[in-house]
Design brief:
The protein has 397 residues and is α/β, with parallel strands linked by helices. It has helices at residues 8-11, 18-34, 69-74, 96-106, 121-125, 192-204, 222-229, 256-267, and strands at 38-42, 110-115, 132-134, 141-144, 150-153, 165-169, 178-181, 207-211, 233-237, 250-252, 276-286, 292-300, 309-310, 312-319, 322-327, 332-337, 344-350, 359-363, 372-380, 385-389. It is an enzyme of class 2 (transferase).
């Protein structure tokens, strides 16, 4: 059973004075500019500013989220009502740290992000999964136990069971295997694909930055350890001292957001605004009797279109302002008469974690629904507007 930090010295929180912090960030920024293979390793500390508590912070922590979950358990205490927390992790907005890492990856500066977090925020922030290794799983990801197909959900897919079975099955007609959540519990093996990716990059890295991790959980913590053991630069950003403190080239005692905001200023790279990213696929086929069109609405991973993504709570079909059909579960498949329906309005209702408004797909008639169409929907929660585009980089202002 996992517990908080037993050593009281390891629970102490330290803060570098401004001059010391500036000197360290100056040095780190130059190292990033000079690096050939820069990687980052993140822990729960990168998400505390979003309102998600960590696990091991002490009872006297300065974090607005309050003590870590395991620290509360070990002390048989409850979280204060004054703690600043989100009670639904799907409503958490990615932090400046999350968004800074996304921008570094987009520019090719960050070669791989290795994370212990299962809150899904790195993917939600826009990090390309090709450059992300989630060692402890993702609360939004299910995997088929038979064919290994992946399914993303815009809801909590964690089963909370020892066998990880979610009760859902693979969509593939020739498979129909049982789906399992991807969460890694203590004592379980890490996913081979993710851990291999992480150590492959650790072997190449000439610079590794750790953010918000106590580095007490192995084998995950062995990734930055490997960089340090190879006599490459290891920089640890954490309020508490870690078991790799003496191995690190530099230890920075500051909040993750403080580190990344200062770092991006020195690199001259603005931190992008976060937006909700959705990818939608619409297909139309003639029904077997030849009289109707069969229309299918699907969500897809924004970066990997072969991965289904459950995005919609309901889909409504309307014509001339009249409700024709409402579908409340996947697959969002419906039939339309070939010649009688005009105009057609397909209204997409999302899960609304960020108060997303419904989006209308409007067609002159059923024939004008494309045989196959794929596009992006980007939502700016600050202004409450969607943008439909074919360009994955065409974000709304």
């Amino acid at each position: 059973m996992a517990h908080g930090l037993a050593d009281s010295e390891m629970k102490k929180e330290y803060f570098d004075d401004q001059q010391t912090l500036d000197d360290k960030l100056d040095k780190l920024a130059q190292w990033i500019k000079d690096s050939k293979h820069f990687i980052v390793f993140t822990g729960a500390g990168v998400s505390t500013s979003t309102g998600i508590p960590d696990f091991r912070s002490a009872m006297d922590t300065v974090l607005p989220t309050g003590p870590g979950a395991w620290e509360l358990r070990d002390n048989q205490a409850s979280r204060s009502k004054k703690a600043v927390v989100v009670h639904d992790m799907h409503k958490a907005i990615p932090s400046p740290t999350h968004m800074a890492l996304v921008e570094l990856q987009r520019r090719g500066i960050l070669k791989c992000l290795v994370s212990q977090n299962c809150d899904g925020l790195h993917l939600r922030s826009g990090m390309n999964p090709k450059y992300l290794a989630e060692l402890h799983g993702n609360m939004n990801l299910e995997i088929c136990s038979k064919c290994d197909a992946k399914y993303l959900r815009d809801y909590d897919a964690a089963a909370g069971r020892l066998d990880h079975l979610t009760g859902r099955r693979c969509d593939k007609p020739d498979c129909r295997g049982y789906l399992k959540d991807s969460i890694i519990n203590f004592g379980e093996n890490l996913p081979e694909e993710e851990i291999t990716k992480a150590f492959t990059h650790a072997e190449k890295a000439d610079l590794c930055l750790v953010l918000g991790s106590s580095l007490t959980v192995t084998p995950a913590a062995d990734v930055p350890r490997r960089v340090g053991k190879r006599s490459q630069k290891l920089v640890i950003g954490n309020l508490q001292r870690t078991p790799l403190y003496s191995l690190a080239t530099v230890n920075i005692h500051a909040f993750s957001d403080t580190i990344m905001q200062g770092l991006m200023e020195r690199l001259g790279i603005p931190i992008p605004q976060w937006i909700v990213r959705r990818r939608v696929r619409v297909t139309r086929e003639t029904s077997s009797d030849g009289h109707n069109y069969e229309v299918l609405i699907e969500g897809r991973d924004p970066d990997k279109p072969n991965i289904p993504f459950s995005l919609f709570k309901t889909v409504e079909i309307k014509s001339d302002g009249k409700d024709m059909k409402q579908i409340t579960r996947e697959p969002f498949l419906f039939e339309l008469p070939k010649d009688k329906i005009r105009p057609v309005n397909i209204q997409l209702h999302f899960f609304g974690h960020y108060n997303e408004l419904p989006f209308d797909l409007k067609y002159e008639d059923a024939k004008h629904i494309p045989h196959e169409d794929e596009f992006y929907l980007f939502y700016n929660p600050m202004i409450g507007q969607w943008k439909k585009t074919k360009n994955p980089e065409d974000f709304p202002l």
